[in-house]
Amino acid sequence: MPGFLRQFLLISSFLLSFSVFAQEGKELDITSDISQIDEEKYPGALVMYKNTKQVYIVHEGIEMWCDLAFHYKDENFVRAIGNVRMNQGDTISMRSNYAEYNGDTQFAWASGKVNLQTPTATLDTDTLYFDRIKQQAYYRSGGTLRDTASVITSKIGRYFLDQDKYSFIQNVKVTNPEYVIDSEQLDFYSESGVAYLYGPSTITSETSTVYCERGYYDTRNDNGYFVKNSRIDYDNRTVFGDSLYFDRPTNFASATNNIRVIDTANSSIIKGHYAEVYKAKDSVFITKRAVAITVQEQDSVYVHGDRLVVTGVPDKRIVRGYYNVRLFKSDLSGKCDSIHINQESGLTQMIGKPILWSGLSQMTGDSIHLKSNTKTEQLDSLRVFENAFLAQQDTIPLYDQPDRLGYNQVKGVTLFGTFKDNALHQIDIVKNAESINFMRGEDGVLQGVDKSKSASITAILEENALVEVTKWRQVDGDVFPLTKFPKDQREFPGLNWRGDERLLTKEDIFKGEAPFTLTKIQGIPLPEIEEDFFDNSIPEEKLDIPGASRLKPSDFKNREEDAPGIGVPVNDKATLQPGANDEEEDNTDTPQLRELPKEKVKDSINGTHEG
């Protein structure tokens, strides 16, 4: 009967020009080699047997064959037994062990190894109900659907002929040679091969696991997008975002809004509002308030730029930041045009007008390199190349300029610095070194100003304050009382104090930037919950069940445990309108994402992506 069911289902799609009322009551046409009446054993039935040919049944364009049939003409009802086969033209073929069909209500039921074949899929189940008027088939004892790409199993399934759509509920599993989908509720369109996932769902393969609570997946092209608590787990990266796009053949993913990329291999996190991940190249590109966080036990490092690119296998990660780069650590912060971080060597290169603040000290030069100990994760040393300049603002106003503070200054060609307990401790300026040092006694009283030139200078800092300056091979210089020190010589040319730009908190990495507005995302709507398959409003005594049917009134009742757990009733139009539910606006529009992946990945790897 399942085949019958499905046959009728598809048949009904070809017979929409006939009214339900015109069909109702039309008699079944049945022929066989042998027929007989046995009122004592089969009251009211014409028993029809196979001899050389199977029993042949026709009704409204549907053809059915079986080995044995019981035709109850008064009730316009037939029971078919043994090798039941039903065809609708050359588009549908169904087989089962047993089938029933009511010509008046156009309701069919099939059981026993039910197999329905259509041009796009094959369904196997043990019991199938078919309502030809609704053009729907239904099973609730387990079923298996096979199409060209996948096998789908579930406890409950409902087929809508007019949409070529299956709605699966409870223990839904999609098995593909490349992946397995597990979900509690899934809608599948067999012609296109696309699936919509609702509720906690996972897509698992050898290289990744996708999780979402609402998603779309193209089972034939092997890609999809996911929303609501969505994430993608790779071997050593996990990608979170309000909306995720994933293409398995290229192992590419992109994400939009509130993104986190967690690198478990290197204890780092990247955040932003647009990201691309290309696993084959071990590459992550992120922009829109992008920030990379190196998680350390006591003091994490934050790097922000207009865009960030992370490449390389786990033990050789490279982080690149471009345009308006800011760096923050509790005792160190800086700015530059671009940054290059080698996590294997612990080397950070600040390039393009770099500036670095360590405590009260400000350092500038053509480029700045920071070196960290990869084992202790603490800063080890730094170098400032070409035009190295260190300045430190004094704490007491100048006696003759009470509205100004003096600056301790050291400059030269190259600066070498070392850290102690993660704080800058010693500085060596080599080649053409010059210094201006406001000297104070132990009581803090200004004693004079030391201005000199030498081959190199060593400066010692304690608690971020310059406490000692040693000049090597001094060639010029003297100590002046402040009253004798010319005002126009108190600052070296090139001093540009930018203390008001110093980053004091991790939130300061975004200071001065315009407020950010998240991209409006058009997402996946909630599924529509159709009317119940059975009409529970009909009293049992009024159900049109032929006396010879194996079905009971309880078989025509919808069970609460079989109902969809997620969705909106079809008559609740307000909820189904796009934008009517703010909670559903955190999803991503699939065309927008599917147009950009491959080119953007290529650009981001080559360093040409403009974000």
TrEMBL record:
Ranges where the record places region Disordered: 544-611
Family annotation (InterPro entries): LPS_export_LptA (IPR052037), OstA-like_N (IPR005653)
Keyword terms of this UniProt record: Signal
Gene3D superfamilies given in the database record: Lipopolysaccharide (LPS) transport protein A like domain (2.60.450.10)
GO CC annotations on file: cell outer membrane; outer membrane-bounded periplasmic space
Occurrences of domain Organic solvent tolerance-like N-terminal (ranges): 52-184
Signal peptide bounds: 1-22
Keyword Signal: yes
Composition-biased stretches (Basic and acidic residues): 552-562, 595-611
GO terms classed as biological process: lipopolysaccharide transport
GO molecular function, one term: glycolipid transfer activity
Domain of life: Bacteria
Protein known as: OstA-like protein
Originating organism: Leeuwenhoekiella nanhaiensis
Lineage, uppermost ranks: Bacteria, Pseudomonadati, Bacteroidota, Flavobacteriia, Flavobacteriales
